[in-house]
Amino acid sequence: MQNCDNCGSDKSKLLYSINRFKKPFKIHSCRKCGLIFMKPFFSNKEIESFYKKEYFTGNIDDTKAFTYTDERKNKKGFTAVNKKRVKKILEALDSPSGKRKNFLDIGCSFGALLDEGKKLGFSVTGMDISDYALAELKRNSINIIKGSPETNDLPVNKFDVITLIEVIEHLKKPGSALKKIFHSLKKNGLLVIQTANMDGRQAKKAGKNYHYFLPGHLHYFSRKTLTEMLENTGFENLEFYYPCEFGLIPKLIKSKGDFKKPSDYLKWIRIIFYHLKSKIHTGNFALTSAMVVYARKR
Ligand SMILES: [Zn+2]
């Protein structure tokens, strides 16, 4: 039996059968709370096989299966985004620098976000399940926890900020992971989550073709279901950002890293339009499906 990880209900309805990958899967939604998830999940062994070296380098044989872009190939772009991200975190912590503050990035891959955290004074730790990714962290002398908040314990009352950037959707038991994260944060600590908003019109309109339906994504949230899960865990003062907590400029710099010919600059029009469209939202309604939430432990 696979119960809903948000409300515990065992009643779900089939939303979509996703057949565009080598490994097809089914997407259900909880009849009680609306949380969306893969059902049944892939086995742990199958899931583990997703995160080999090929996942990170983008050379996976089922090319449509993952959207991970290797941050090492676009250093300037990722630096622009991550620098803004860390500055925004400092603002939220009401601190001029990260000195004497502990920062944990879960699902950190090669540590690009932590590199920027380190530059702004944070004491940084990265957590990842991939040996391949962690070897790179070792080279950058970043503290490492190998594993995932689902299977590993986290140090209690240790971190001032914990980030889950496009990670929570990969977890089988996000609820129990959030509990460990909550206990691992200090009082007034900040959790930052980026994931897709399934209530956004972008996701609803695309239906089963929504690009976020991927073999590695086991849970799909909306503002409503993520709020419920965070508040049930004890998090308070939730702040949602659409499409993300930083502005347009770092995004344009990041996208430029993938441009190969002058006409690629036309893509900026689409990115600018998407960014502006994302600003149209009210309550649980949003036009696009990108969101970031800041949640606090009081
Ligand atoms: Zn539910």
Distance between the termini: 35 Å
Widest sheet: strand ordering: 6-5-4-7-8-13-10
CATH class value: Alpha Beta
Determine the number of helices (DSSP H or I, runs of at least 4 residues): 10
The proportion of residues in beta strands is 15-25%
Which range best describes the helical content: under 10%, 10-25%, 25-40%, 40-55%, 55-70% or over 70%? Answer: 25-40%
User: Could you state the order of secondary-structure elements as H and E?
Assistant: EEEHHHEHEHEEHEHEHEHHEEE
Bound molecules: zinc ion
Rg calculated over all Cα atoms: 18 Å
CATH-level-4 superfamily name = Vaccinia Virus protein VP39
Number of spatially distinct domains: 1
Taking pLDDT < 50 over at least 5 consecutive residues as the criterion, the unreliable ranges are none
Could you tell me the CATH topology label.
Answer: Rossmann fold
Average pLDDT figure: 92
Shape: globular
Most strands sheet: 7 strands, mixed
CATH architecture: 3-Layer(aba) Sandwich
